[in-house]
Specification:
12 helices; about 325 residues; binds (2R)-2,3-dihydroxypropanoic acid
Length: about 325
């Protein structure tokens, strides 16, 4: 008998076919997110699950799913997991690091350029039939080339963003929990500074920290007040790292020239005030969403699940101290 698993959201057909070779698969190709209660009901009797950031896996859920052995997120972020609860319950948890770095960094650059050069705003004007012809002072933007790019969080994605800045002749400053080795700093032409200095000196600041209790509202009113007047703020990491109400105030006060945002607190119910700013580019959490990358993420999650339920160590195990598979 093949072990039973749940795929909580729509995935690509080849991923379902691959999973079907190993498991009895219950899928949700209709893609309506499960409520916590529905998720617990669907997971009853399942040995594993392919999950996404809309599925909260915590002690309450795990207590209702005693047969569960592995939860494999289709995402590099895993703040939807209570990792300690998974470990205590003997449930392996995995994510999908690496495969989305380039696509996400590309998209961060799309936000940087669209915000600095007012792409969305000017297109809205044109589409509304309000463009009356070329004008010298029309949609004057901020130059990206030769500007100072600040990166908060210099992990894999932050480094990919920095690498792309080389082509724009930018000065790159960064702050990170751990400083990069000297050779890596040299290769990226990146200078390590304190967080305060990063905020004070960046013309464009991009956030690349994961969301965890210690990064909740890492960027709030005090941090925005430290930013250079006229700076551009870019955020494509995870909602909750930024206090969106404080961001709204920083935009309202005119301190920021603009913002490019892909993630929000309480997604998809974003702070409605953000919709009122013409100088803010808003996208619906799609930074990793190229066809090839989303396929790779889903397939990597599936491979993690196959390995976990075969009794192997999955390639992207987040809780290696997990005591043992549940009987
Ligand atoms: C991730 O991988 O964490 C992304 O936010 C999901 O697209």
């Amino acid at each position: 008998m093949k072990p039973a698993i749940l795929v909580t959201r729509e995935v690509f057909d080849d991923v379902l076919a691959y999973l079907g070779e190993h498991f009895a698969v219950e899928s949700n190709q209709g893609d309506t997110p499960f409520t916590p209660d529905q998720l617990a009901q669907r997971l009853a009797g399942k040995a594993g699950a392919l999950t996404t950031l809309s599925d909260r896996v915590d002690a309450a859920l795990l207590a209702r799913c005693p047969e569960l052995k592995a939860v494999c997120n289709i995402a590099v972020g895993f703040n939807n997991f209570d990792l300690a609860a998974c470990t205590a319950a003997g449930v392996m948890a995995t994510n999908t690091p690496g495969v989305l770095d380039d696509s996400t960094a590309d998209f961060v650059w799309a936000l940087i350029l669209a915000t600095a050069r007012r792409v969305s705003e000017s297109e809205r004007t044109l589409r509304a039939g309000q463009w009356t012809g070329w004008k010298l002072k029309q949609f004057l933007g901020t130059d990206v080339h030769h500007a100072t790019l600040g990166i908060l969080g210099m992990g894999r994605i932050g480094q990919k963003v920095a690498r792309r800045a080389l082509g724009f002749d930018m000065r790159v400053l960064y702050h990170n929990r751990n400083r990069l080795p000297h050779e890596q700093e040299q290769a990226l032409n990146a200078t390590y500074v304190s967080q305060d200095e990063l905020f004070a000196r960046s013309d464009i600041l991009s956030i690349h920290t994961p969301y965890a209790p210690d990064t909740h509202h890492l960027i709030g009113a005090a941090e925005f007040a430290r930013m250079k007047p006229g700076a551009i703020f870019i955020h494509a990491s995870r909602g909750g790292v930024v206090d969106d109400a404080a961001l709204v105030e920083a935009l309202r006060s005119g301190r920021l020239a603009g913002a490019g945002l892909d993630v929000y607190e309480g997604e998809p119910n974003l702070n409605r005030d953000l919709l009122g700013f013409e100088n803010v580019v808003l996208t619906p959490h799609i930074a990793s969403s190229s066809e090839a990358t989303r396929r790779s993420m889903a397939m990597l999650a599936a491979r993690n699940l196959v390995a976990a339920l075969a009794g192997e160590t999955p390639p992207n195990l987040l809780n290696p101290t997990v005591r043992a598979l549940r009987p």
